[in-house]
From TrEMBL:
InterPro entries: AMIN_dom, MurNAc-LAA_cat, N-acetylmuramoyl_amidase_3
Reaction(s) this enzyme catalyzes, per UniProt: Hydrolyzes the link between N-acetylmuramoyl residues and L-amino acid residues in certain cell-wall glycopeptides
EC number in record: 3.5.1.28
Signal peptide: 1-32
Species of the source: Roseibium denhamense
Record keywords: Hydrolase, Signal
Domain MurNAc-LAA: 249-405
Protein name (record): N-acetylmuramoyl-L-alanine amidase
PROSITE patterns for the chain: PROKAR_LIPOPROTEIN
Top-level taxonomy: Bacteria, Pseudomonadati, Pseudomonadota, Alphaproteobacteria, Hyphomicrobiales
Length: 421
């Protein structure tokens, strides 16, 4: 399949998830899929009812063994189960009915699928049952939801908190501390393709999925860096898997990365005709402008979209050594951002004021210089057409490689590196 075709494949937003979740919440028995055959197939899903009682029906070819949890602020039901195949229309789940405002589904981790349902009000499972296939009718899982109270929903959410938190940590690949870069070795660069799995990221006006586009680009960028033989280059993800934002930051820390580059291609709600061109972002407590603030808010929603419990922000740094490390990392981050913008100017189109800043959670490592690169904006049809071409990606990757060379040149030459160089 061609690159453009792979990128443009739309993710199915399936209503399916709600069903199984309710099953566990009701305390009724669930059934494991028989044997080690093909992945279960979901062929249909629909929701009906009102905000007092809502019924969800999912068509599938075999029973599955799901686990269910709940999260608050906003209210979500989370359904996890072994990887399944969703053969349902892409638009399924984008709008809801009754107690369910919308739902989404996708790969959450290797061999694990997830459905996240946004609720209009607190809900409980009244009953759930499974209907075997009869004649030409597929097997069906039926879940009836009823309106509950905030205390009841909160109780269930708190009960599932520890389990959900453990599952979120297990969902992401672990960085091996034994493989971390050591003194005297090649600089270690961690490339972070944004989104993944259940979190599709932005969807372009022509159907391009951000999660696929940035992964494709990150792999090409890695190849160019690897060809030089000067760097040890890693990826936070190398397939269509979701990774929580905090875990991405932890990977940079565990690997003792010398540079962290998060790669995105967002969509914006304001100024669709004006927001065009590559942009480089660094971390700051206050956004440099409205666009930067909007993008930070969107990117920081990634965990909510995927059904991950939001951890509390760390307290203000009081240790003077940590504070100094954070300031130094921010200085190097800004230095690399300016270097990158300088290289990109002669290679690709840049947005006005291409170096911007905001409170991106993925850039909050205190000990790793970190930047977020917007390749372009999928809400702009001209950007989207360029981003899916091999020629544009090649030029962008080459320019970014040159920026990396400039950033590490003093170190590779054996001289101390300072942000002013």
């Amino acid at each position: 399949m061609a690159v453009a075709d792979r990128i443009s494949v739309k993710m199915n937003f399936a209503a399916v998830w709600l069903v199984v979740a309710a099953c566990l919440m009701a305390g009724l028995p669930v059934y494991a899929a028989d044997g080690e055959g093909d992945k279960p197939v979901v062929s249909g899903a629909r929701v009906a009812g009102d905000e007092a009682r809502t019924r969800f029906v999912m068509d599938l070819d075999q029973q599955i063994d799901p686990s269910i949890s709940a999260l608050q602020n906003p209210r979500r039901l989370i359904l996890d189960f072994p990887e399944v195949q969703f053969d349902i229309p892409a638009e399924t789940g984008q709008t809801g009915r009754g107690l369910v405002s919308n739902w989404r589904f996708g790969l959450f981790a290797d061999g694990k699928s997830r459905i996240v349902m946004d609720l209009k009000a607190p809900a409980a499972v009244d009953k759930t049952f499974f209907l075997p296939a009869i004649d030409d009718q597929p097997a069906r899982l039926v879940v009836d939801l009823v309106r509950s109270s905030d205390p009841e929903f909160q109780a269930f959410s708190e009960q599932s908190r520890k389990t959900a938190r453990a599952a979120a940590v297990k969902a992401a690949p672990k960085a091996d501390k034994l493989t971390a870069s050591k003194a005297g070795e090649r600089p270690l660069i961690l490339l972070d393709p944004g989104h993944g799995g259940i979190d599709t990221g932005a969807v372009g006006v022509g159907g391009t999925l951000e999660k696929a586009l940035v992964l494709e680009f990150a792999k090409e960028f890695k190849e160019k860096l690897d060809e030089t033989g000067l760097y040890d280059v890693r990826l936070t993800r190398d397939d269509d898997t979701f990774i929580p934002l905090a875990r991405r930051v932890e990977m940079g820390h565990e690997l003792a990365a010398d540079l962290f580059i998060s790669i995105h291609a967002d969509s914006v709600r304001r100024g669709r005709t004006l927001a065009r061109g590559a942009t480089v972002y660094t971390l700051s407590d206050r956004a440099s402008d409205e666009l930067a603030e909007e993008l930070a808010e969107t990117e920081n929603m990634s965990d909510i979209i995927a059904g991950v419990e939001l951890s509390e922000e760390p307290a203000d740094v009081t240790d003077i050594l940590l504070d100094l490390a954070r300031r130094e990392s921010r200085s190097f981050s800004v230095f690399f951002a300016k270097t990158l913008v300088s290289e990109l100017k002669s290679a690709v189109r840049l947005i006005n004021n291409p170096h911007r800043s905001a409170g991106f959670r993925v850039l909050k490592a205190h000990d790793v210089p970190s930047v977020l690169v917007e390749l372009g904006y999928l809400s702009n049809e001209h950007d989207e057409k360029l981003l899916i071409t091999e020629e544009w990606r090649g030029r962008m990757a080459t320019a970014m490689t040159e920026a990396v060379h400039r950033f590490f040149r003093p170190r590779l030459a054996g001289t101390p590196v300072t942000p002013s160089q």
